[in-house]
Amino acid sequence: MAIPVRKCDAALGAEIVVDLSRAIDDRTFTELEGIFHDNIVVFFRDQHLTNEQHIAFSRRLGELEIHIVKKYLLPEDPEILLVSNIKNDAGEHIGLADAGFTWHSDTSYRKNPSRCSLLYAKEVPHRDGKPLGDTVFANCIAAYEALPDAMKRRLAGTKAIHRYSMRRRVDNSPRPKLTAAQLAETPDIAHPIVRSHPYTGRKALYVTAGECIGIVLRDGEQMPEDEALDMIAELDAHCVRPEFCYRHSWRIGDLVMWDNASAMHLAICDYTLPERRLMHRTTVIGPEPI
User: Fold this and answer.
1) Number of domains comprising the chain
2) What is the value of pTM for the model shown?
3) Which domain covers residue 135, as residue numbers?
4) What is the pLDDT of residues 221-256, one digit of tens each?
5) How far is residue 200's CA from residue 197's CA, in Å, rounded to a whole number?
6) Bridge partner list, 74
7) CA-to-CA distance for 134 and 181, rounded, in angstroms?
8) Does residue 290 lie in a domain region?
């Protein structure tokens, strides 16, 4: 029996009707992966997952990353990163409060960036009965395919330089300052601006203004900084055109999974305490982009 799928009326996105707390056999899991690759962003409503179930399902997609900001990992389950604006009794955030406030692809600053991320909604902010804190996703395959042929030729063989410390912070209040060891763990890395998907082979743009600080040309020389930043901004703006985007409105119990090789995303911060947001995120490590 085919898995029920409800495609979104957008350039990407689909709801999969499956209870992830139940055992999923290999055949069904393979079908789920195919739906995921076809739709780039998939979501499962009304889930009731333990941390162990969340981790176990994520791990079937690959090795899980332990996030560099260790302060916001669950001590008993460090594969889970807390994403939250909630504060403890000392007035400190219990999780990353500014996660995703610029367009980005998760862990693009790694040699082996994320294959996919799985975000599970534990608390969703509301105001006047309306959910807040939507996430917008952009289809970077469709964005690449829409480029003029001349631009595709110009981008072939070029790389963008990704830098973790470029991430903008919430309310200009930084996350815990990166230590020397953390900076050493996240050196600048150059990835192809046009990358091939590791499972489908389809080409996608892989560059964002929020994290990329330069361009390496085919001959290994760096493009002049002002020219590079202008091109990065142009490609970033192209990727997030409305016709390439899907906006997800969260509900408690949603598990949303997105493909970081072919999409980037943006968190909408239209809420403030006492409107609480609490998410659990796992991140699957992917191959080095080519």
Assistant:
1) 1
2) 0.93
3) 5-285
4) 999 999 999 999 999 999 999 999 999 999 999 999
5) 5
6) 77
7) 34
8) no
